[in-house]
Amino acid sequence: RAAKPSAVPRVGRSEEPARDDAAVETAEEAKEPAEADINELCRDMFSKMATYLTGELTATSEDYKLLENMNKLTSLKYLEMKDIAINISRNLKDLNQKYAGLQPYLDQINLIEEQVAALEQAAYKLDAYSKKLEAKYKKLEKR
Prior knowledge:
This protein is mostly helical. Helix content is 76%, strand content 0%. It is rod-shaped and about 155 Å long. The chain starts with 34 loop residues before the first helix and ends with a helix. The N terminus is likely disordered.
């Protein structure tokens, strides 16, 4: 037979008397499962809960292992970067020392360059003077 929905009392409203008492059926009393069924269901629940918690703890443990490995790799990278920075610093000091050793020669080159420029100016002046002398000589020669 088809079960009809049982009447649910309305909260906060006054209950009205049932108009058709024959149409309302009473719900059958709920039966509790047998003791063996409850024990089996509890064992099943605890087994599944243990499996779930084991999975959660395993996942968390794996996450921590991953973080540990990432930290180790990061630490190694920082050590490599430290070694590179130390090498760069050492090379920069060597380069500065070499530059300081070359500085007297660079100063001499600058001095020679200034002297060559002065000599070049003197040569231009001498050339201009010799051209004036030549022009005067040719003028005197024509007379």
